[in-house]
Amino acid sequence: MKIIVAGGDGFCGWPTALYLSKQGHDVAIIDSIIRRKWDDELRSNSLTPIASLEARVDKWDEISGNRIKTYIGDINHYDFLQEVVRQEQPEAFVHFAEQRSAPYSMIDREHAVFTQVNNVVGTLNVLYVIKELVPDCHLIKLGTMGEYGTPNIDIEEGYIEIEHNGRKDLLPYPKQPGSMYHLSKVHDSHNIMFTCKAWGIRATDLNQGIVYGLHTDETQLDEMLINRLDYDSVFGTALNRFIIQAAIGHDLTVYGKGGQTRGFLNIKDTVRCIEIAVENPADKGEFRVFNQFTEEFSVLELAKMVKNVANKKGLSTNVSHIDNPRVELENHYYNAMHTKLRNLGLEAQLLTDEVIGSILDVALKYKDHVIVNNVLPTVTWK
Ligand code: NAD
Ligand code: USQ
């Protein structure tokens, strides 16, 4: 199939582009490379040394014989997006191209406005370009489990049947997002749902949990193909951050009590979930929602697992509870459904000590790249 991967230079997008290309799909990446500029703004970096997009794509061509086309530009620029879609005529549009850090979106007014404009306008442009140029193209949009928040009832996959005053309806599941970033995803979901109904767009919203790891079979083929790995307090995410903290001998930074429970998945499962969505398109006019994670953990559970693995490798690692910079529940009920991708064939790669150990080995290899000042959180929600 002809597939566009928007955000294909990023943490999820790069391994996905390689994986889809390996399966024989005709892949084109769109990326504005802005994620690398946010590193400059924050004086931060990827733990791993990432090659330029051109160098990565050339190396992949050399190794696999498959050419991934690249379009450097911003999907907020409609003329640019139109031109790419006109040339590519995609059958599937995989949309990762957003500002995805909750702390970044909470820095100040400018960062909140930027995040929401970048994400909401970008997605609107994608919807309009599909309507205008490729109305049968399947939009596969990365949403987030954080759209639901932490309600005191089970979380369903997108919709919940409600009975009210004797009548029943299947309604969108209530959303209680916890940051300006997570709010942008909710706004996207509403816009997508409306255009599915109004214009007959076919769309899958993948409410992804927190992704850990970095390697896939493809990114491991050559150091030039290595994926980015974020550890700083703005873009680094819970499990990956703890593993890198263990590698540099930093206390593991559990925010507050650490009872915050979330859905997690390995990056190897992210790429497979995208393939499953591509191979099983939504119907015309259907707004389909899948919860994309494989296991639930509390933050404290993860920190303890990392500590055990690190201790077995002879590293002395402590778990510390630091003041929570976010406004969120630290003890709450959490039980989210995630059967739809499994029913379509996802075989989850579960988190084990061996998996943590293998990510820790990568972190130990590159630990000298860590800028230690970037590890403790500086952005607060209040
Ligand atoms: P990332 O920041 O590593 O990658 C995003 C890429 O999109 C970057 O390369 C960036 O340059 C590009 N981009 C951003 N705005 C753009 C624009 N307007 N035009 C063109 N390119 C643009 O993020 P990621 O971790 O790969 O996340 C990808 C998607 O998956 C995001 O939508 C994110 O919300 C979602 N997601 C990520 C996680 C996670 O744990 N990483 C979890 C759930 C959902
Ligand atoms: N946390 C800590 N210590 C840390 C970092 C985080 O205790 O050092 C806690 C946070 O307080 C929070 C939880 O861990 O309770 C998750 O935080 P995170 O930074 O790992 O993840 P989050 O901000 O939710 O965002 C990440 C991605 C985002 C994606 C989301 C999926 O950056 O793009 O949408 O995970 S989800 O959480 O399911 O919404």
UniProtKB/TrEMBL annotation:
A Pfam entry, by short name: Epimerase
Gene3D superfamilies in alphabetical order: NAD(P)-binding Rossmann-like Domain (3.40.50.720), UDP-galactose 4-epimerase, domain 1 (3.90.25.10)
Residues covered by the NAD-dependent epimerase/dehydratase domain: 3-291
InterPro entries: Epimerase_deHydtase, NAD(P)-bd_dom_sf
Family to which the UniProt record says this protein belongs: Belongs to the NAD(P)-dependent epimerase/dehydratase family.
Record-linked PANTHER family: DTDP-D-GLUCOSE 4,6-DEHYDRATASE-RELATED
Stated name of the protein: NAD-dependent dehydratase
